[in-house]
Amino acid sequence: MRIDAPSLRHAARRLTVDADWLVGQAEWLSRSFDELPATGFRGQAAEAAVNRLHVLARPMTAPPAQMLRVAQVLSVTAGLQEELDAAEVRARGLVAGYAGAADALSLLLHNLRVLGDLLDYACARQIDLLCTPVQVEEPTRLGDTPDLEVAAVHELNLLTAPEAVQLLALEQPDLQILEVADGRLVAAVGDLATAPSVTTIVAGVGSSDPAGLPVHLNRARTVAAATGGAAVLWLGYHAPVQATHALAQEPARAAGTELQLFQRELTRRFPGQRRIVVGHSYGSVVAGKAASAGGGLYADDLILIGSPGAGVARAGELTLLGDRPQIHAMTNPSDPIGMTVTEGAGVHGPDPTAPGFGARVWPGDSSGDHSSYWADPVFLARLGELADQKKPAASSE
């Protein structure tokens, strides 16, 4: 529950009063120590004892200063909260005389509430920084801010996002930035809070290049439209820059851990959604590492497209945490990725579309290449069918 402005100001006043009292106590102790020689307590040992008492009492000066800094944070927060409260009053007054303005008012009030939540978070974080002796790390994952709704997480991330990401969010106002840090970006299109399904797209080689973000986002929009749900562009790792670097296992292994964490937090926030993960190219290696590592991957369906292998010998080694989980695979006949993997072996394991792998194989587009999956109506229709599958009702037992 959000703390109101009067409560913030009251807490600031109490801290200020108590800080002044502690300052007075510290000064009284210091005077008492200085008065000890007048009682006959003299000599080198007595002087050393008085000096030692002053040293022991010195830490008492730190809490009042800390309390005053916290009081200042609370006062500033109270002033900002009062501005938000006043904005709400003005908004209600402006639309009161307009018929059909209820939806606009509801949206405006929601945005003000999001700003209030973000203000609460910023206030609490600043107090943590003032009161914690060790450095508090900046949030970099969706799970680092579990109490903030997605809209507030988006606003928080924009405060530290690179300029390219900020411009992207400005140009595409429906974009929700879920994670951003050090060349990593996780963004959603569609309303995550209400969407019946969410499809996480794990991109591959070269996807960390900011110049390619519009292309990846267009793919996410296409998937969201095809499924009728939300889509997440997951670039939560430093993707290999070029194909020769995609032979490495370690980037996929590290990224798989990050993908696990993201899908777990997504499930915690929206447990009723159907979850689909699509791994494209090297992204399928990442998704395979996530599903084969300890703990498994929170997904109902995993789709490996244009895959050089999933890091395992067979689909049975992949663990999906979902309802009736299934592994699917698809590679276009003209996709050159097919030359890097065989039915029996490959740098990242055998071809996921091979019969012995055990995935449900979707036939590829005979004229399609490595990047045409996102424009293939058959592929998109299959995605839509998966998204439409209803999750079973929770047992009442």
How are the SSEs ordered, and which strands pair?
Blueprint: H1 5-35, H2 44-57, H3 62-95, H4 102-131, H5 150-158, H6 163-171, E1 176-181, E2 184-189, E3 197-202, H7 213-227, E4 230-235, H8 250-269, E5 274-280, H9 282-292, E6 301-305, E7 326-330, E8 360-361, H10 377-388
Parallel strand pairs: 3-4, 3-5, 5-6, 6-7, 7-8
Antiparallel strand pairs: 1-2, 2-4
Helix pairs in contact: 1-2, 1-3, 3-4, 4-5, 7-10, 8-9
What does the model show?
- It is a single chain.
- The chain is of the alpha/beta class and 397 residues long.
- The chain has two domains: 5-131; 171-388, Alpha/Beta hydrolase fold, catalytic domain (Rossmann fold, 3-Layer(aba) Sandwich), CATH 3.40.50.1820.
- Helices cover 47% and strands 11% of the residues.
- The protein contains ten helices and eight strands.
- The protein has an eight-stranded mixed beta sheet.
- It holds the Pfam family Abhydrolase_8.
Question: What features would you highlight for this structure?
Answer:
single chain; 397 residues; alpha/beta; Rossmann fold; eight-stranded mixed β-sheet; 47% helix; elongated; DUF1023; DUF1023 domain-containing protein; AB_hydrolase_fold
* Strand/helix succession: HHHHHHEEEHEHEHEEEH
Percent strand equals 5-15%
CATH class of the largest domain: Alpha Beta
- Report the major sheet: 8 strands, mixed
How much helical structure, as a percent, in the residues?
Answer: 40-55%
Shape: elongated
Overall strand count: 8
Low-confidence stretches: none
CATH architecture of the largest domain: 3-Layer(aba) Sandwich
- Derived from helix and strand composition plus strand pairing, the structural class reads alpha/beta
The overall number of domains is 2
Overall pLDDT metric: 86
CATH superfamily membership of the largest domain: Alpha/Beta hydrolase fold, catalytic domain
